[in-house]
Amino acid sequence: MTKMIKDPIHGSIEFEGESELQLKSMLADPFFQRLRRVKQLGFSDYVFPSAAHSRFAHSLGVYSVAKRMLSVVEPEARNGEWTPKGRACLAAALLHDIGHGMFSHAFESAMELFVERNPQPEDGALQAAVNHEKVGQKIITDSSIAMTLTEMGGPDFPSMVAGMINKADKRCVYTSLVSSQLDADRLDYAKRDPYFAGVSSGGLDLDWLIRNFQVGSGENGQFLYVNSKAYISLEQFTVTLFQLYPTLYLHKRTRGLEYMFSLLMSRVFERFAEGDEKLAGLSSSHPLVRFFRDPERLENALLLDDTLFWGSLHLFQEARDKSISTVADRITSRKFYPMLDVWKLADEVAAKDGTMKGLDAAKRVGVLHKVCEKVSQDLRKKDGLWTEACYYDRYPRPIYKPLGAEGGHPQQINVEVGGKIVDIASISPIVASAASFNIHRIYFDDVDEGLQDRLASEIRSSIRRELAEAAENGFRV
Fold this sequence. Notes:
With 477 residues, this protein is of the alpha+beta class. The protein has helices at 17-25, 30-33, 55-73, 84-95, 105-117, 125-130, 132-141, 144-153, 157-165, 173-178, 184-197, 206-212, 231-249, 252-273, 287-293, 298-301, 306-317, 322-332, 342-353, 361-379, 429-432, 451-472; strands spanning 2-7, 11-16, 214-218, 221-227, 339-341, 391-398, 414-417, 420-423, 436-443.
């Protein structure tokens, strides 16, 4: 028997044979259904209105891609008759995001901000309860999901699935299909996210890639690779993924809204910690309060989806704590915190200064990155300027992380050249360029009307000082 689910990216997603149909039955599990209510791109639909697709749809897409890749590793399999590791691979692909909380990574950032402002025991229960990897492992090995997996493959099967997601064996080809630099996860969202956001991208010829995948083996185990005629498609994949960061994932408005969410939730958690949830506008029976009081209970994690926040936002607006209600009002009315782009200011100062004219692009980027980091970190120490609502947003994203393993490795992108298997960074000048995208942004509350001018003035002065010092030291990075 075969069952299908229609998908705009992959066409028909098929479940065939007993084990795959067992996986399909798992879609009805409450923990998996919760992913319908967690958006893949968090707050991105505030900027890209159609980017409202869910982790549920993405997980199905990852399963579909993983199944096609698995058919290369196990070409003799028919009608869903995969090996135990093959079945675990498909289960891991379907469940790789099962632990994500509301707004995905933004909820983890909210807890990080709370812990930064209110130190907690290292690796405490609250931190673990928002860590999507730890929560995911717990769901896979200790919930109704685990029962279905046990029926599929026996008592050790849930741990095998969790191990693939967590890369317990980095030399396992099955693990690489779920988690590597060329995995089903990336291959799905590199197509799905720009499609729903409506942004242009370099494109990804997934069909051509899968047609050209071959299985190799060496001292690092089995791995997938392509020959030189398909390596351009892999190069295009790395560039496409890289360019999605400045255009989509790290958009200044989205990141600003994520910070406002983090600040709001941090202040809400502070009221919970003081035992006064009513100041935050909530009752003691509210799901967020129950989660905070007993974070280790999986049933409380089950309630943490995007709809819980949106359904509570009007309560936050009515909170007696003005530091909560003010931010809630701003989120509701889409009044973003203003932002100063330290990198852009450094670029402008450097262009006028002229001392960096002789540097090549890579060296110039390295110098500016170091200057921006130093300026931003120093700014955080200035009590007269830096307020409780200020935030330094920093994120480095390299185009690729080369392993350089000759003979192939499951965790790198492998290409055959002249009869040898090498890392793509060894033959692609684009990938080997070590290009990286860095953001250095300062978000702040504009309740103080003169704060923006004072911050900008201090940033420019600090940039000039750091550039002069860098020039004296020969622009060493």
